[in-house]
Every structure is written in structure tokens, then in C-alpha cells.
Amino acid sequence: MKTYKYLFGLLFLFLMHFSGLAQSYKVVTVPAPGELEKSLGDDWDKIDSVVVKGTINKVDFQTLYSCSHLGKLTVLNLEGATIEGNRIPDYALFYPNITDDYLNIQRIILPDNIAEIGEWAFSNMRLKKINFPASLKKFSAGSFCGCHWMEVDPLVIPEGITEIPWECFAHC
């Protein structure tokens, strides 16, 4: 009887793995800004969820873009990360030349020290959920433009935000 349970368990794991239902996550500590790609290793395109620790910059956001656009990344946890200048860079996870495709990142967890989200930083994504930390003071133009799937009922904006700029939440 134990042999059947063991074989059934192995068969289940095998089927999950090859059916694409198995989830793959990775916790990555970035030794220095710009080195996320090295830290992710060879399985960067197979990870569907990543927890990033350490200091990251615009180059690292380009790596995360590739992990979703060319790979399977859907969940991005930056809670333990420090982002240079406490600002999400302009075009962080958006490339303006690719307008007919939506990046498949669906959940983003931002660190508590973010003060600003740059221009078009999270545009054209399948983003459903994102937290806005109390430290957030500024949205920029088009920050979330084209995020049709956002589940925001209600949308809670931190008290430090004094204006919603042009096309910040357009087509959401």
C-alpha cells in the first residue's frame, strides 16, 4: 500500500512539472545594483515568482522585464529590496516599442521606503494587485497606464500623494 502511495506521489509531481502547473519561485539576494541577472542563474526563464533582496537599479528592472516577457515571471516581491534613490525608475517594466503585448506580471509587492513611481514604470501589464506603501509621495505620468486587470476596489492612495498626473491610471 505504501509503495502505491509513493508511486502515485511521484507520478503526480511528474505530471505537475511537465504540465506547467508546478510553480517555481526563487529568493535572490543581489550583491550589488545591476547584478540581479547573475544572481538569478540559468533558470531565470523558469521562475514564476521571485523575492528580491539587496539593492537594485534600472538594469535589474530590465532583467525582471525579461524574466516576464521571455520567461514565466508573474509575481515580483521587492519587499526586502532597496531601490536606488527610493524611486521606481522610468519605464522600469515597460518598453514603449512593444505596445501590442502586455507583460504578464500580475502581483507586485513594493518595499516600504518607495517615495516615487517613475513615468510609465508599470504600464501595459496584466497587473492585478500592487501595494502602495505609506512612504509613496509621487506618481508620474502613465505609471499604470493600460493595466486593465487591476483589482482596486477601492483604490487606496497614500496620504502623501497630492496629485494624480496625466494618464497615471488611464485604461485601468
Search tags:
single chain; about 170 residues; alpha/beta; Leucine-rich repeat, LRR (right-handed beta-alpha superhelix); six-stranded parallel beta sheet; three-stranded parallel beta sheet; 3 helices; globular
Mind explaining what this structure looks like?
- With 172 residues, this protein is of the alpha/beta class.
- Mean pLDDT is 86; it is low at 4-21.
- The strands form two sheets. Strands 1, 2, 3, 4, 6 and 8 form a six-stranded parallel beta sheet that branches. A three-stranded parallel beta sheet has the order 5-7-9, with no helix packed on it.
- The protein starts with a helix and ends in a 33-residue tail after the last strand.
- The longest helix has 18 residues, at 2-19.
- It is 20% helix and 18% strand.
- The chain is built from three helices and nine strands; from the N terminus they run αβαβαβββββββ.
- β1 (25-30), α2 (36-40) and β2 (49-56) form a beta-alpha-beta unit.
- The protein has one domain (23-172): Leucine-rich repeat, LRR (right-handed beta-alpha superhelix) (Alpha-Beta Horseshoe), CATH 3.80.10.
